[in-house]
Design a protein that fits this description.
The protein is of the alpha+beta class. The chain contains eleven helices and twelve strands. Helix 1 crosses helix 2 and helix 3 packs across helix 11.
Amino acid sequence: MRPIPAYIIAARRTAIGRVGGLHKNRRLEELCAPLIAAILRDSGLEPGQVDEIVIGNASEGGNPARLIALAAGLPETSSASTIDRQCGSGLDAILAAVRMVAAGEIEVAVAGGAEAISMAPWRIAKPRSIYQTPHFTRLQAELGEQGDGPPLMEAAEALWSLLGINREQQDAYALRSHLKAEAARSAKRFINEIVPMRANPEETRDQSATEPDLKDLAQLAPYLPPDGTLTPGNTSAMHDGAAITIVVSQRVWDSLAKPRALRLVKSTAQGVRPDNEPSAPIEAMKKLKAQLKGYKSTDIGVIEMSESSAAQAIAFAQNLDIGENLVNPDGGAIARGHPFGAAGAVLVTRLFTRMARNKDAKGPELGVATLGVVGGMGVAALFESV
């Protein structure tokens, strides 16, 4: 299998903040402009060399990528596009940029995801008649509102019950995720990955990455009482944040003296029954592994997954016979939060840190970014370090 000849040569992200928290007054362009400035410095490229910007976003509407481009000082001649595949938007934006570069359409792209849910416009459903009152709609509508099946939370609970994943296992996994995130912070593994928006220690760490106690986790009420297993402590919540990369052509990579980079090997997307949505990353990963020719899945050194819950991550590892330490070795979305349309771009940025950021350290040669998408879809992408 021949890798796509496009190179991710820089990747940065913001700290991930709770809705109404760290980034409560920051719009998308305020989150992204400092990141774009940072990755341009990292790469040695000038704003005028950027041909295209592709941003994944699921809450703003319209084409915010254009506004971000202008706010970041990119040339007016740069094209801009926004992709919305809900949680998969940021990863899709990077993959789209890779394909444009590989096709020879452009040579330099800025690509990633951004979500400012705290500042996102409200969505109000139009009344069906003059006698009904308008009401707010959710960013992710619960399945079943049109009678298509059980609500997502109930479907997830049913699946975890079928797989025998109990509350104690989920809480223990959540605790380990937080402990891994704290160990990574203490080891300064997020330095040069997170771009502080201002000079403040809070801007250098993910806001929800704390050190909970297992007893505290056990005392949290389930979302579906009395026997539910999913709680605010063992699931990932919506957050604000952004992650941006630079993708360049072979010619540009050569002209920069071939810096350490990520190169896409293969990506897949897979749909599942909407009421089986929690299993979507498993099916996407199975499809990806089935299509690997010339690569062994056992050579994959790291998997970054934006899990919706501890149960989903446990099921993913068990079903694919993957060691737990291979998945989210520095903590996952349970610890740092899930920035919706930016989540997939955060995964690629995490892979870049582990596989390519340190020029002198030997990291994993193969890594996967994967996550589920609301509506019953999974996305997975395999990258190699070069």
